[in-house]
Specification:
130 residues, mainly alpha, Fumarate Reductase Iron-sulfur Protein, Chain B, domain 2, 2 domains, 9 helices, 56% helix, globular, binds iron/sulfur cluster
Length: 130
């Protein structure tokens, strides 16, 4: 692992408050994930890949935006690892690397339709405006 990736891994771990070393690779987080079929990398893989410093594939993956932030993986984990917080921290790192917000409030009205739930807007701001 090069220095840049090591620093990024340390930052992600610090920001998330997650200790990936507690993971015992049981897979329960991924088994309960409602976005499993949509995600290229699953919650248990986020944990193991951050732990090993294999972060670049995560940064480039759409999995960051497929996660529903439902926290089912957090509830299910027998070791209190909280994979969702790791997904969130990697997503934040990706957005910061891109150096720009992807959603601004004045863009929202044009995106709305009658079927858009309010939760989707809140979730979009969580994901795209840090
Ligand atoms: S928070 Fe994300 S990774 Fe965790 S179970 Fe929900 S959708 Fe899956
Ligand atoms: S449920 Fe917890 S211990 Fe099991 S693989 Fe997921 S993060 Fe690791």
């Amino acid at each position: 692992m090069n220095n840049k990736m090591q620093n990024l891994r340390d930052e992600i771990i610090l920001r998330s408050g997650v200790n990936p070393s507690k993971c015992m690779a049981c897979g329960k987080c991924s088994a309960t994930c409602p976005a499993y079929n949509e995600m290229e990398y699953h919650p248990h893989q986020f944990v193991s890949m951050v732990k090993s410093g294999d972060i670049e594939p995560l940064l480039a993956s759409d999995s960051l935006y497929k996660c529903l932030t439902c926290f089912a993986c957090v509830d299910r984990c027998p070791r209190g690892v909280e994979p969702a917080k790791l997904v969130e921290a990697v997503r934040l790192a990706a957005i910061r690397q891109q150096g720009a917000n992807h959603l601004k409030p004045d863009m929202v009205p044009d995106m709305l339709d009658d079927d858009m739930p309010q939760q989707a807007i809140v979730s979009a701001f969580r994901k795209y405006t840090k």
